[in-house]
Amino acid sequence: MSAYADTGFIVSLYKEESTSADANSAIRNVEAPILLSELSVLEFRNATNLAVFRKETTEDARTIILKRFESDLEAGIFRAMPVPSSKLYSACARLSDAHSSTLGTRSLDLMHVAAALILGAETFLSFDSRQRSAAEAEGLEVLP
Fold first, then answer.
1. In whole angstroms, how far apart are CA 68 and each of 1, 6, 9, 71?
2. Which of 57, 78, 118, 136 could be bridged to 61 by S-S, CB 3.0 to 4.6 A?
3. Contact status, residue 139 vs residue 131, Cβ threshold 8 Å
4. Are 137 and 104 in contact (CB under 8 A)?
5. Are the C-beta atoms of 37 and 8 separated by less than 8 Å?
6. Where along the chain do its domains lie?
7. pLDDT in tens, 18-67
């Protein structure tokens, strides 16, 4: 069963948050590699940099988090996959027409759901309620 993780889920694995225990539990129920888009990798890096700006962590701690994440990528726990922009944007437009007026999904929500679908994921790992609703509506199993 292939799984795709959104950025918030990934951050919960590396930075102590209220969702960290659930993220760690859910990750045990999916097979590696967990698929990521290149957007996820960028958003993860930016989230760690923003944590320094917000004084939620130190620069040294951020460096350690980024090294742990890169190590997990190299070890095959995660696999960052390219998603062709032509496919991504057309899928996002379809998802927007299908879900945004009823679920309130934002563009980045749709980009993650579209990436999961394009990459052939069967499971979607997220804590974002709008993403979760859109992913479920598209037939993906949603965890946690």
1. 25, 18, 15, 5
2. 57
3. no
4. no
5. no
6. 3-143
7. 999 999 999 999 999 999 999 999 999 999 999 999 999 999 999 999 99
